[in-house]
Design goal:
- The strands form three sheets. Strands 3-2-1-4-5-6 form a six-stranded antiparallel beta sheet, with no helix packed on it. The protein has a six-stranded mixed beta sheet with strand order 7-8-9-12-14-15.
- With 235 residues, it is an alpha+beta fold.
- The radius of gyration is 18 Å and the shape is globular.
Length: 235
Amino acid sequence: MQFTPPLKKATLIKRYKRFLADVILEDGTETTIHVANTGAMTGCAQPGDIVWYSVSANAKRKYPLSWELTQTPSNHFICVNTIRANQLAEEAINNTMLDELTDYKSLKREIKYGDENSRIDILLSQSDNNQPDVYIEVKSVTLLKDQQGYFPDAVTTRGQKHLRELMTIASGGKRAVLLFTVLHSGINSVTVAKHIDPTYANLLFAAINSGVEVLAYQAKTDQFGITLQNKIDFF
C-alpha cells in the first residue's frame, strides 16, 4: 500500500475525545485532525511526536486531515489508522504474501456470521475443492513495552466476542484465524496482554486449544507506504 498522494508531516500537540488530535503543521499553523482509532494508543501519541497525515478530497468532511502514522523519537513508525489493518491483510492475501492463506479463489469482507451478530473481517473460500472456508479476524498491534508487542492495549469486550465466534467456527470444522497485523516497526514478537485484559487472554488460550489459528505478520512501514510481509512469533 503506497500513500498517494504522499503523506504530509506535522507535530502532535495532543490527542483527545478519541477521534481528534491537535497538531502543528509544517508552516506553523495549528489545526485539528481526525483519528481513526478507538484504542488507547499507548506509546503512539506522545506530544511532540511526528504525525504523518493524509488529506481527504471530500469537501463535506469537517476534518479533512487524517492521522495515518506516528514517527517516534526512536524513529519507529506506527500506523495508528486502524482501518488500514484490514486493507493490508486483504492486499497481502491477494498478493500471496501470507503463506498460510493462499490458493483461495474468493475473498469477501465484512460478512455476517456467528451467534452474536458479528461480521467477519475476511472470508476466504475455494469452491472447486475440499478446502474449508477460512474465517479471518484481523487485529492491529501497536503496543510496545520492554521490547515486546502486546494485544490488546485496553480491555476489549468486542475482541472477546470475536474469540467466542471463532471458537464456534473452529468447532464446526472450518478454519478460524486470528491475524495480528503488527503496525509498529519496533515490534518483533507478539503476546497477549493478560495484564491489561485477563478475560481476553483466557479466551485466547481457550481459542487456541479449540483449533483457532493465530498468525502475526509485521508490516514494513514508513511515510511512503505500508506492506504486510514478515511473519513474527506469537507466544
